[in-house]
Amino acid sequence: TINMAELKTPSDLKYTKNDEWLKIEGDTAIVGISDYAQDALNDIVYVEFPDVGASLKQGATLGIVESVKAASDIFMPIGGTVTEVNKALEDTPETINTDPYGQGWLIKIKLSDASEADTLMDSAAYIEYCASR
Fold first, then answer.
1. Cα dist. 43→46, 61, 65, 117, 119 in Å?
2. pLDDT digits (tens, 9 = 90+) for 80-131
3. Is residue 130 classed as helix, strand or coil in its secondary structure?
4. N or C: which end of the chain has fewer CB within 10 A?
């Protein structure tokens, strides 16, 4: 069982029901998976990234995170063009487990429509959502 009290859900991020997080910085954003997701997946062993330059709509699959337990599709929390992928995770995918909101980020994107972020949950709503599952 996942202990919600121990999970981190930074309040400066937005969250999806698929457990991605989004941090908007101007016209760009950083995307990763939440502490809840990494905890549920367990030991992450592989990450598949989209191509830099790929333009993906909100909800599109951006890649896959594989753990010792399962493979899980990762979805775009908001539409945009991929500007960078976290290459360091190719050698150390377990960084997602230890630092999902920091060094464990997945991709950076240039936003196509920042207002799409309004459809995402804030940390309080996301905590409630996780607790209800």
1. 10, 21, 10, 29, 30
2. 999 999 999 999 999 999 999 999 999 999 999 999 999 999 999 999 999 9
3. helix
4. N
Pairing of strands 14-15, 20-25: antiparallel
The predicted model scores a pTM of: 0.96
d(CA 60, CA 93): 22
Task: Tell me the backbone φ, ψ of residue 40, rounded to 5 degrees.
Answer: -65, -40
Indicate the helix (H) or strand (E) that contains 41. helix 35-41
In the chain, % helix, strand, coil (3-state, to 5) comes to 25, 35, 40
